[in-house]
Please model this.
Amino acid sequence: MENLIENKTLFTKNQWEQKKKDNAVQKKTGLVYCENQFGLVDGKTAAALVRHSEVYSIVGIIDSSLAGKDAGEELGEGKSGIPIFSDLDDALESLSYTPDCYIYGKAPLATFISIKDRLLIFEAMKKGMDIISGLHEFFTQDPELSHIAALNGVQIKDIRKPPLLKDLHLFTGQISQVNVPVIAVLGTDCACGKMTTAVELNKVLNNLGIKSVLVATGQTSLMQGAKYGVSTDALISQFMVGEVEHSVVQAFENESPDIILVEGQSAISHPAFLSSIGILKGSMPDGVILQHPPARKFRCDFPDLAMPTPESEIKLIETISKTKVIAITLSHEDMNEQEVRETIEYYELQLQLPTTDVLSNGCQKLVQALGDQFPTLKNKIERENFKSLSDHQAQKLNRLEENDEFVLT
Model:
């Protein structure tokens, strides 16, 4: 019997290893270009892909300023096994194979890429790599890039490119039919961790047995593999609210989830961007998680615009919508561990809202906050935890029985 148990365990391990291999086969290998920006604000796409991607297996980052280092360690999150290369030639020589995709991993405000970056894309295509871009500059509409792609038998994918006009949606009010909690992860600025918090919370909820679906609203989360959503800032403004609504409704109808998370963009208060207002209106969330970088003094890319406080952003969100902010999440950029702890304590005291840094402390407080706000979620979490505990206890009893250590009393 003992050998049988060992064999069953081995079989389970083999199944798990095979599943991982199958998933790896389904993913395309990707080399991410992020020259001089990895770990910085404009390198957020590259950082996000290092942390998580259901579509691409990231095999390297190109950033000559950090060549030779590990991408995960540069993000302060431990060794990832993803190397940083000085240039394309260095990457291809070190990898000894050509990755499937060359991913443009920077998210600049500039309308067009530089001549240097353009030439590097030419080079990647000539090496046989597909081009993945999340820029507003659509490479598929560039005759020269399209010609070189055709000559080399590669594809170009513009992640940010909106649907055709005939496929766009206006607001209909169907969002009122969504009868599961919809939670928007909004923020006080651009590039402050909204997407990371949404992705991490989505993973944790699903691991707990709560069926959670993430609706993407930006190019990076779509690159990561979000099944529903659209890059809101590339849409004609008239369709922004309707496209967000449509994405949430589609996720609800197709997936029958327990909860829907909606990624935020920029900030409601940001004078330069409109996306968060469209997200708030289109998703009509039942609750908001607010992401904030406490050490940031000025808005990202706008040195003349001072950062808002969480208090002012909360007031604005709750004034223009019927929802409530239910938790605060922090970006720990430019903060040490003690400063993060002190800030969490301060916000929880002053704002009376659960506060956490997801990358450092996990999502436990967020799960608790969701359970407190939505009894159906709380009941399911408790049932799943009981089931998990029962399964664990049953496994333990089985092991004790086989070892003659279990005694009935």
Remarks:
- The chain is about 45% helix and 15% strand.
- The longest helix spans residues 375-402.
- Residues 1-22, 400-409 have pLDDT under 50 and may be disordered.
- Residues 123 and 281 are 43 Å apart (CA to CA).
